[in-house]
Design goal:
Layout (H helix, E strand, L loop, with lengths): L4 E4 L5 E4 L7 E4 L2 H38 L3
Antiparallel strand pairs: 1-2, 2-3
Length: about 70
């Protein structure tokens, strides 16, 4: 469970930010829509982070193998 900050902007839209995930924010016309949107944004952020972490691990393993065999 992540904490979020919800507020209204000057145009009346609801804005929601997840401070623990840099750059993860969303908006909506209603508070309910906005909270639904941020749940989706958080899930996407975490999924993308996991993919990037796995890609980084595979790259490190590849580079270690190359260094081991002087490729």
């Amino acid at each position: 469970m992540r904490q979020v900050i919800v507020y209204r902007d000057e145009d009346g839209y609801w804005i929601v930010e997840c401070p623990s995930l840099k750059g993860c924010l969303s908006q909506g016309k209603t508070k309910h829509e906005t909270l639904s949107n941020i749940k989706e944004a958080i899930a996407g952020y975490i999924a993308a982070s996991r993919r990037l972490t796995l890609d980084y691990i595979h790259l490190c393993n590849f580079l270690c193998t190359c260094a081991k065999y002087h490729i």
